[in-house]
Design a protein that fits this description.
seven-stranded parallel β-sheet; 24 helices; alpha/beta; OB fold (Dihydrolipoamide Acetyltransferase, E2P); six-stranded antiparallel β-sheet; Isoleucyl-tRNA Synthetase, Domain 1
Length: 769
């Protein structure tokens, strides 16, 4: 990194670990990754942070409900976030956890500093507390909180932060843009909260500005009066109350230094992560230098529901500590599924893993590392179909699981950023995802690349000839590069994509109009030259488009860059080749690399597969109840009913097994028994006998429902190798799919099953014979 490069520090919100990640979490993280990749290719010294928020009463209760210690609970859920970001190719430079020692040290350092500066005092408080949102709510007992549930009455001795002292400074900073808050709707909401109920106040007659010291639930002035900000905007002094910043009703948090019966309020704790990740609180000189280098943050990306914490509490803490404020806070909207916000409690959460698994099956074979005889356009179609059917001809090899994940991640990245302008709410559906993929990626960019490069291969043995650009395409491309929308600020990412899609359409139309395949049949020199020019300008345009799309589609553009004969796109990004784009980057004589499909079309049936995978988990419980009621077993039978896993357990009294019909070797050969490893094991709410398992067969991953919850703790199963029936027809039970059956022996000991396993080390996917 050059000495003159600018630093750019951006963050996602750190995600709360009360539940596993869904695509709402992925949305913020993807947007941050796109911005980080763009700043890196521009040469900025970029630091991209994400992580998990792991303290608070809600986490402690979730751990208790799961029957595990809070640290174990947070370890498992935090790992599900960090593992997913790795699987998706997210390029975060650090992953902070609020249970990290470095973070605890930094929080306690900030607390002591705030105490020393008189920003904290000890008092007591009785009020209504919303546990799920970790916040106090104004109102009488039984008040409905932001989560739609009744609040709890809490009486505690608390430490309070003098938030009321910062009403006017915060108003002035946000109004002036010193603290940049976007979108405008979010900025206005924050300012409205800060100003108080202006319509019910009277103009202030004195020059003094009354700032009543209070905390949640304590009344301010009985006769509110108006004052004015530096910009002349009216506000009600004292409308901003002091903030409770410690808890004594639970223990899962960072102890308050000097009074350890208190733990630090989760929002003071969590917000400090943005500094502790870059060295705040450390005694290490290298970490201290890191903090001096990167702080303040240039951009906080947050969900709109937590803007108050980031635009009021966080800057006030920093002002009280005399520390620099972040430069910008930008809020994204909610991702709606069937017009309702995704949430665990509503049962409408869509897991990112579902999309990765489903679209990963479409991933085309990567180009060979060494150019071979590339396929013709018709062969590309055949190869794509073969890929979908799992039959790949040599020399192309099946993509690895990691490549499938990155391909599918590109699809999700594109859809979310193309479909939903950042800052606005957006609707997600599987049908919309497939429609957008086919329209823009398969029929658009992917088709343009395949048809252009295959014609260059077919007509010129894969070598670019002419460098002259026909006037009409040069003008369109130049306008694209000059377009003010071609930037990667959050508010313009969707506009950037739309501009690029428009250019792709123009190129497609130009190719259709000039019909190079007709020119190729002509033998005269003029037609040959015109053919060279058309295909060169199309290829050069693809280079420009690919460079612009790289932050959004890093996996697909890497393949296209290689096929253009330009090598490694990641290296090109590091070397500055993807910025300051100009025409003529593809030199005459450049040889194309080996060709491969880019975006095979997706069948509409893929939507139903994803819907089945993401059906509400409660359906499994209902299905289990139905199965039990429909069985012929008596109420005193201690056996566990079969639910997809088909583990049939005997009654208490041992009996001689009934004779079973003999089978032939051909019958046995029909049963495909495979070795699998359990990756995820979790209980299904309200289904005491069921576990949901995710197993790895080496060549693919599956979901299986197993009726073993009475006998096995979920965490004890993770990592265990088992035998499954791999060719059992998938069973759909009110929308939840089980793809196989776990094999177990039935023991006499109270009907307990024993999972089949191995002494030797066995390769995943190995078949039992």
């Amino acid at each position: 990194m050059s000495e003159t490069s600018k630093k750019f520090f951006l963050t996602t919100p750190i995600y709360y670990v009360n539940a596993r990640p869904h695509i709402g979490h992925a949305y913020s993280t993807i947007a941050a990754d796109v911005i980080a990749r763009r700043h890196r290719l521009l040469g900025d010294d970029t630091f991209f942070l994400t992580g998990t928020d792991e303290h608070g009463q809600k986490v402690q209760r979730s751990a208790e409900k799961a029957g595990v210690p809070p640290q174990q609970f947070t370890d498992e859920v935090s790992d599900s976030f960090s593992s997913l970001w790795k699987r998706m190719g997210i390029t975060n430079d650090d992953f902070i956890r609020t249970t990290d020692k470095r973070h605890k040290d930094g929080v306690q350092k900030l607390w002591k500093l705030l105490e020393e500066r008189g920003a904290i005092y000890l008092s007591s408080y009785t009020g209504q507390y919303c546990v799920s949102e970790e916040m106090f709510v104004e109102g009488p007992p039984g008040t409905i909180g932001p989560d739609g549930k009744p609040t709890e009455t809490v009486t505690e001795e608390n430490y309070f932060f003098r938030l009321s002292d910062y009403q006017l400074p915060l108003l002035n900073m946000i109004e002036s843009g010193k603290l940049h808050v976007q979108p405008e709707t979010t900025k206005n909401e924050v300012l409205s909260f800060l100003r108080g109920n202006v319509s019910s106040a009277t103009p202030q007659t004195s020059g003094a500005q009354s700032m009543t010291e209070s905390h949640p639930g304590m009344g301010g002035s009985a006769q509110p009066t108006l004052a004015h900000t530096a910009a002349g905007t009216p506000y009600v002094p004292g409308a901003l109350k002091d903030l409770s910043i410690s808890r004594t009703s639970f223990t899962w948090g960072i102890p308050v230094p000097g009074n350890e019966k208190h733990v630090v309020y989760v929002w003071l704790d969590a917000l400090v992560n943005y500094m502790t990740a870059v060295g705040y609180g450390s005694d290490d000189p290298a970490e201290q230098a890191k903090f001096e280098k990167y702080w303040p943050a240039d951009l906080h990306l947050v969900g709109k529901e937590i803007t108050r914490f980031h635009c009021l509490y966080w800057p006030a803490f920093l002002l009280a500590a005399n520390l620099p404020l972040p430069k910008a806070v930008v809020a994204n909207g909610w991702l709606l599924f069937e017009e309702s916000k995704m949430s665990k409690s509503r049962g409408n959460v869509v897991r990112t893993e579902t999309i990765l698994d489903a679209f990963g099956t479409l991933c085309p074979p990567p180009p060979p590392s060494q150019p071979a005889t590339p396929p013709t356009p018709s062969e590309v179609v055949i190869l794509s179909e073969a890929q979908n059917l799992g039959r790949l001809p040599d020399p192309l090899q099946s993509p690895t699981k990691a490549q499938q994940d990155l391909f599918a991640s590109d699809v999700l990245r594109y859809f979310l950023l193309r479909e939903i302008p950042f800052g606005q709410d957006g609707t997600f559906s599987f049908d919309a995802l497939i429609t957008r993929y086919n329209a823009d990626l398969a029929n658009g960019y992917g088709n343009l690349v395949s048809r252009t490069l295959n014609m260059i291969q077919q007509y010129f043995d894969g070598e670019l000839k002419s460098a002259w650009l026909p006037r009409e395409l040069f003008a369109i491309g130049s306008n694209l590069l000059a377009d003010k929308n071609i930037n990667y600020k959050t508010e313009n990412i969707t506009g950037t994509i739309k501009a690029i899609v428009g250019y792709v359409a123009s190129l497609d139309a130009n190719l259709s109009e000039n019909a190079p395949w007709k020119l190729a049949k002509q033998q005269d020199p003029e037609s040959r030259l015109r053919l060279e020019e058309i295909l060169y300008q199309a290829a050069e345009s693809i280079r420009i488009i690919t460079a612009l799309l790289y932050p959004i589609l890093p996996y697909a553009t890497a393949s296209v860059w290689q096929q253009l004969g330009l090598g490694d796109i990641e290296e090109a990004a590091r070397n500055g080749e993807l910025k300051d784009l100009k025409w003529g980057g593809l030199k005459p004589g450049t040889k194309l690399g080996a060709l491969s499909p880019i975006f095979p079309r997706a069948d509409k049936g893929l939507a139903q597969i994803m819907i089945d995978m993401e059906a509400p988990v409660a359906a499994a419980s209902e299905a289990a109840t139905t199965s039990t009621q429909a069985s012929t077993e008596s109420a005193t039978d201690k056996s566990v009913p079969s639910v997809s896993s088909a583990l049939s357990l005997p009654p208490d009294e041992p009996t001689k097994p009934e004779a079973t019909p003999t089978i032939t070797i051909d019958d046995f050969a029909k049963v495909d028994l495979r070795v699998a490893q359990i990756l995820v094991a979790e209980r299904i709410p309200k289904a005491d006998k069921l576990l949901r398992l995710e197993v790895d067969l080496g060549y693919e991953k599956r979901q299986i429902l197993a009726g073993i919850a009475v006998f096995y703790e979920p965490e004890a199963l993770i990592g265990r190798k088992v035998v499954i029936v791999a060719n059992l027809a998938p069973r759909k039970m009110r929308g939840l799919i089980s793809q196989g059956m776990v094999v177990a022996a039935s023991l006499e000991d109270h009907g307990r099953p024993a999972l089949a396993s191995f002494i030797e080390e066995i390769e995943l996917g190995a078949r039992l014979r």
